[in-house]
Amino acid sequence: MLEKILLLLSLSLSVAEGLCKPGVGEAYKVRFSIKTALGDQAYPWNKNEMFLFRAALAFAMRDFTNGEEFGVSDIHPCNETQRVSFWFVVTRPKTMDLVDKGTVEMAIKKSRNRINGAFLLTDKTLEFDGIYPTLAAPVSPDTPPWLIVFGVVMGAVSVGIIALLVYPLVQRKLKKNMDADDEDSDEETGVKTAENGANDGIYNSTFSDDERFTQM
Amino acid sequence: MRLVLPNPGLDLRIPNYEDLEKMEKEDGDRPKWDNKAQYILTCVGFCVGIGNVWRFPYLCQTHGGGAFLIPYIILLVLEGLPLLLLEFGIGQRLRKGSVGVWRAINPYLTGVGIASMLVSLLIGLYYNTLIAWIMWYLFNSFQGPLPWTQCPLNDNRTGFISECQQSSTVDYYFYRVTLNASASITDSGGLQWPIVICLLAAWTVICICYIRGISTSGKAVYVTALLPYVVLAIFLIRGLTLKGAMNGVKYLFTPDVDELMNPTTWLDAGAQVFYAFSLAWGGLISFSSYNPVHNNCMQDAVILTIITGLTSIYAATVTYTVIGFRATDKYDTCISENIRMLLNGFELPEDSITASNYNAALHHLNSSNPDTVFGLDIKTCDMQKLLSEGVEGTGLAFIVFTEAITKMPGSPAWSVLFFIMLLCLGLSTLFGNIEGVVVPLKDLNLFPKKWPQEALTGVTCLVSFIICLLFAQQSGLYWVTLFDNFAGSIPLLTIGLTEMIAVVYIYGIDRFNEDIKFMIGKKPCIFWQISLRFTSPLILLVILVFYLVTQAQQELTYLVWDPDYDEFPTLASVPYPSWINVVIFVLAGIPSLVVPVYALCRLVFVRCKKKMKPEKDINQI
User: Region annotation Disordered: residue ranges (chain A) (predicted)?
Assistant: First the structure.
């Protein structure tokens, strides 16, 4: 019994190794850039991490196919390099049939964030060759902020202009009212003022320089 | 030299010294500065403009770095200083705006004032468009992340829009989102609404700052003239602490003495001095005419020259710290990208190639597997090339600087600061500009006399805004470049030269010396005598001739943003259409020709008047 199981296992392993060939058929290449992402806190790549990867991918396949019971043994990696990159293929549970590239791609796309999260990596540091991440749209608020700033500036400037135009008119009106009051009290001192005025002399601008210029 | 052209009736047209003393005592209705500081700040603001940030550093770096300061300072003293004294002195003495001053010296010279006004108007139009673009960027800086950090996505969300992908996020934001640039100047497209309302904002701000003439603009300059210095200081500190800043500063100031042998260096320095001082715009004459009669204009000229020179160097240092930072950042990105490609291509562990052993590793891999390395298409990362990338004009502010700011932590704050600084620099120059337009219009009696100053400013701003809508079209960028090249170059040189000749040989340098003696107490020394009579006019003449010769030889082409161009994102060089010659004539020819044409018309008119029966005096131009 034991020999039979061993034989089956070794057979399946050798078949699986045969299934996973880099660059051929339904194989995908995946690349990890752990040190780039995590720097000092990078974890070393070992068999346990590989196991996590296979488990994460099996989860992605289950999630996408909605129930087909993919297991860790259905993910077959090969050609692991020091870069931490390797190829892998996915087989259907309990059979050796390869799952086609399209399905694998869509499964990975659907669960990309979860797979990234399992490794504390991002779309850029955990790359699947040939699967482009769907990019998040840039955040655009409903009211463009620039309109708000523009509105504030224009509002302030308009208020300023109106204030500057209205203020002298208001002042003139107030002065007129004050003059009307003062005139009543100044009638007795009117003669005195004229005398004072005659002593100082007033510069009569009618005879100013403008008329010196030769006119065209 | 006693060469003075005959100028009959001069004494009747200008106030004599007793009149000046009397005017000084009375409170006339001519506007006055509240204090000396306002006057100096207004002049500093007028002279220190956006060109100090985005033109001077480029010239400095292309013409031999630190060595460029030698021709610059020499020409600052020989060319700029005398012309400043001339404009300050004549404005303070004759107490009129530019049209009034030239009309007083000789009625046939009124054309000089009119030319100044036309040039100020044309320059003001495109300058305010630049202000509008700066305002757009300023308004958009109040968000994080800044809108020019990301490309928009394409339809199926797998990548970015190809135009943005091929060029860069900042290029796309400037040429597509802001300007929506068409591919040629003939293809005007529609109005770009964001630009229209930014233009409205720009003209309204100018209107309110200048609404009562210098009594409002004099208060505004306390902010607009001083704030740029504060912001430059902040940027200097920030810039010096950035990685790679010293690369930029070293690149800027490394002297290359051979460049001094190149005549272009001297000519560019001369042109930069002339334009930097905003001479021949008419604004400086106007501002000086509001001074008290005994103001020391010679001292003012010297102070202004020193401040402008130092500000140019200061701004250049700040600019190049940021450029150095950006170049270093791009260089590091380039190296990292190459390392990544090598690691991926050769399946090596991550830490085996770092920035320090990159060159050794590349060499080793290239010798062992040259084919693989070739297939990877490794780009050469050249720091010098990155430092020298087209960094003048709008490209510096809206592309290079905005890109550098996105890489600084807290970028919205830096962006706001930077664009407020540019806004203040531009506004303070525009105050002088609009002074050079409104006051001549008043002197020419083109406005009814009873209109208050507010109405004059308002009408000028409104009409200018409507004309500026030309720049709000999709081809607006190309029109701005056209105006920049032609309206602001040859006419100014012609007017400047005519001014010098008019004051020295028609008004009389002896009379001018006496005026200075009356106003400040001593005659100008021998340096001023020689430079006013010979050196400065000669330098101006040489620059003008050189300009005319190069312009005549150059083929009229311009750079366009064309996504269909083969070498996109490089700007394509396209010849101008033939009708552009008419436009160039209007921009450059008409202001220059107004001077002789006006004199001629007046001659004809006066002759006709003598022949016909004497009629009522026509109070016209």
Answer: 177-216
The pLDDT score that the predictor gives to residue B91 is: 92
Q: Is residue A180 assigned to a domain? A: no
Q: Is A29 helix (H, G, I), strand (E, B) or coil?
A: strand
Q: Check CB contact of A200 with chain B, cutoff 8 Å.
A: no
| Mean pLDDT for the stretch of residues B204-213 | 90
Considering only the beta carbons, identify the residue of A141, A146, A214 that sits closest to B140.
A146
Interchain CB contact of A135 with B (< 8 Å): yes
All residues of chain B having their beta carbon less than 8 Å from the beta carbon of residue A148 are 142
When the pLDDT of each residue in chain A is averaged and rounded to a whole number, the result is 78
Cβ separation B153–A138 shorter than 8 A: yes
Q: Which of A148, A154, A214 faces B9 most closely, judged by CB atoms?
A: A214
Residues A34 and A123 in one domain: yes
Please tell me whether the peptide bond between B575 and the residue prior to it is cis, using omega within 30 degrees of 0: no
Partner residues linked to B310 by β-bridges? none
Beta bridge pairs of residue A87: A29, A78
- Residue A5 sits at the chain B interface (C-beta within 8 Å): no
A149 and A123 belong to one structural domain: no
Residue type, B22: K
> Does the annotation place B485 within a ligand binding site?
no
| Cα–Cα distance measured from residue B52 to residue B74, given in angstroms and rounded to the nearest whole number | 17
**A contact residues 79-108, partner B, Cβ 8 Å cutoff:** 81-85
Query: How many domains does chain A contain in total?
Result: 2
Per the structure block, which two tokens stand in for A88?
Answer: 């892998």
CB contact under 8 A, A146 and B139: yes
Residue from A45, A84, A85, A146 to probe the interface with B (highest B Cβ count within 10 Å): A146
Q: For A194-208, B8-22, B42-56, which range has the lowest pLDDT when averaged over its residues?
A: A194-208
Same domain, A105 and A159: no
pLDDT digits over B582-593, tens only?
Answer: 999 999 889 989
Q: Are B286 and B94 in contact (CB under 8 A)?
A: no
Q: A101 and A52, same structural domain?
A: yes
Which chain A residue is nearest to residue B606, measuring alpha carbons? A216
Same structural domain, A30 and A122:
yes
State whether residue B31 is helix, strand or coil. coil
**Structural domain boundaries enclosing A33:** 16-128
The full DSSP string for A148-182 is HHHHHHHHHHHHHHHHHHHHHHHHHHHHHHHHHHH
Q: Do B348 and A82 touch (CB under 8 A)?
A: yes
Q: Give CA–CA dist B45/B432, Å, rounded.
A: 8
